[in-house]
Specification:
alpha/beta; single chain; five-stranded mixed β-sheet; flat
Length: 76
Amino acid sequence: MLIDAHGLGLMAIEVKKGTNAKPRRGFYSACEDLQPAHKFLVHSGADGEAYPVGDGVMAVGLMGLAHRLAQRPEGQ
């Protein structure tokens, strides 16, 4: 999934069930082509669990991603 959030830039998002999931090769290929500002793997774990999974990808819970999408830099 791609989201172009005003003030935050292009975000690449892959959604997975479970907390030990890793992005698939297609996600990395798309990121290489599109050069998103942010890369997220949305997991089904607790929302407070955010951790890097490598190659600039941050794993977050659904509410954690929603919180990030709701943030806007000052003046936006």
